[in-house]
Write a structure and sequence with these properties.
This protein is an alpha/beta fold. It is built from 8 helices and 14 strands.
Amino acid sequence: MSKTIKWVVGGVAVVAIAGIAYASFGPQTKSKDQETLTVGIMAGDKRTDKQWKIIKNNAKKEGLTLKIKTFTDYTQPNAALTSGDIDANAFQHYIFLNDWNKSHKSNIVPVGETILVAGRLYSDKHKSIKDIPENGTVGISNSKVTQGRSLLVLQSAGLIKIASNVKDPTVKDIVENKKNLKFKELATDQLVRTLPEVDVASIDPSFIVGSGRSIKSAIYVQPVNKSTHGGINIIATTKSKKNSVAIKKFVKAYQSDNVADYIDNKSGTGEIAVWKGAPKVQ
């Protein structure tokens, strides 16, 4: 073999070795995409979309891609979680989850607190709770997930009393009704429309805002204290996933100061960020 051929072969070998070394020790690209977590929520509006955009951006910085799946019925997110169609959900409070687990013998667990919707009562006819007349009509939701909360607000306002051993009441659990109030059970999104007809109604703030009204028009606001703990909304998942890195990243992404700032000061829904360490409402 001539010197020239030996030189060429040697040069090729050096280049090949150098390439292998670079591939082994040089700058690396990610071998796979970010981990993806599918989260179930209830269908909302533009305010909800903006909030989840902030959360998704936070998660992305942690190396987690959030895929949001929306539902229109409150029975769907937990069923989807149990079946494995989603990895976590964020739509329910402690009372609803406890009731669900008992009824369906499921193992869904809370992994992080999110918001509290302070209960409010509205009226087009009266300016004060004291003005609610005998035999007055009260508008409340017919949904299992919200009716109990509505009744607890009415109890807090002194209008009714509920059996002491019941945490998620229905109308049947009312044990004292001094004014003999009549209850009109309606779809949650229909309650605002009935305000001209009823004496008072318990309405979710998001529907008040959506109708163009101000949440400050409430004639009663339920105080936030230990008695309202059961109404705190939570992030939930299954026992098998509760300690996963992805779930922890999701909780961290949600429980961030920029999310709290949006909830407390910019969303206009009347919701309050209540997780441990959340900034105080400005």
